[in-house]
Amino acid sequence: MKTTTINIKTTPEVKAGAQQVARELGFSLSSLINAYLRDLTRTKKVSFELPEIPNEATLQALKEAEEEPTSPTFTSASEAIDWLHNNDME
Question: What is the distance between the alpha carbons of residues 7 and 35, in angstroms, rounded to a whole number?
Answer without folding.
Answer: 16
